[in-house]
């Protein structure tokens, strides 16, 4: 197995089978809904952070312009990723789940690095982490529910399976000769021994029941005169 095949098997980026990806319009609608809901969640969490903790003036992470821009960019990137994954992956939801978890973990790394540094209290930084988690959950939920991947026609796979079974069954049929006669078994198939006719018992056949070699059955059964 090549390296590309192993990567395709690991990430599930084989061509999708019998699935219908969401339209770009639905993906855009899901992105807009996720962005709006995420901004509302960010605003609520930032308000809670200011009320519950003492936020230094140097901590500008709770400014609406700062987190609003980052939120919109993150949601747009997630929507574009979902549009591509839904068309390239055989398991789009499986792959999106892992990509979302990876992206969220990467976005949380800078927040962890802020802990304990000057001008970044633990309380406001924890609120900032909750904002990132809320954006990830809201965006993932909106994408898979508003712009889901639908199953394709149910009978397409069954029709192909029955067709392949029919072809395999035809390959096992016996070969027929002209006039509706099957090919005889034995060495005649290779062309060595001539085939027996309809009335000919063949070279290896014995005398008929009740008769002797060279004497017709009617003569041996008739009474002596």
Identify the quaternary structure here: single chain
Largest sheet: 2 strands, antiparallel
Beta-strand level of the residues, as a percent range?
under 5%
The share of residues in helices is: 55-70%
Order of helices and strands: HEHHHHEHH
The residue ranges in which pLDDT falls below 50 over 5 or more consecutive positions are: 155-167
What would the principal axes of the Cα set say about the shape?
A: elongated
Explain what this protein looks like in three dimensions:
The longest helix has 29 residues, at 24-52. Residues 155-167 have low confidence and may be disordered. The protein has a domain at 37-151. The protein is built from 7 helices and 2 strands. The chain has 225 residues and is mostly helical. The chain is elongated, with a radius of gyration of 39 Å.
Secondary-structure blueprint of this entry?
Blueprint: H1 3-11, E1 19-20, H2 24-52, H3 64-88, H4 92-114, H5 122-146, E2 150-151, H6 154-171, H7 217-221
Helix pairs in contact: 2-3, 2-5, 3-4, 3-5, 4-5
């Amino acid at each position: 197995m090549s390296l590309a095949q192993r990567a395709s098997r690991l990430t599930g980026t084989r061509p999708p089978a019998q699935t219908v990806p969401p339209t770009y319009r639905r993906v855009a609608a899901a992105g807009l809904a996720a962005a709006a809901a995420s901004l509302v969640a960010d605003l609520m969490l930032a308000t809670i952070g200011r009320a519950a903790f003492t936020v230094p003036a140097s901590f500008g992470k709770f400014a609406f312009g700062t987190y609003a821009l980052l939120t919109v960019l993150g949601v747009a990137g997630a929507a574009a990723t979902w549009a591509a994954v839904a068309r390239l992956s055989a398991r789009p939801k499986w792959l999106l789940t892992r990509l979302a978890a990876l992206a969220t973990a990467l976005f949380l790394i800078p927040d962890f690095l802020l802990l304990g540094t000057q001008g970044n209290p633990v309380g406001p930084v924890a609120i900032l982490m909750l904002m990132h988690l809320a954006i990830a959950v809201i965006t993932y939920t909106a994408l898979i529910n508003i712009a889901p991947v639908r199953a394709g026609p149910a009978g397409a796979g069954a029709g192909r399976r029955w067709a392949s079974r029919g072809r395999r069954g035809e390959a096992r049929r016996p070969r027929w000769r002209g006039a509706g006669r099957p090919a005889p078994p034995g060495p005649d198939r290779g062309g060595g021994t001539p085939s027996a006719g309809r009335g000919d018992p063949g070279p290896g056949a014995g005398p008929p029941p009740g008769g002797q070699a060279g004497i017709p059955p009617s003569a041996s059964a008739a009474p002596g005169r």
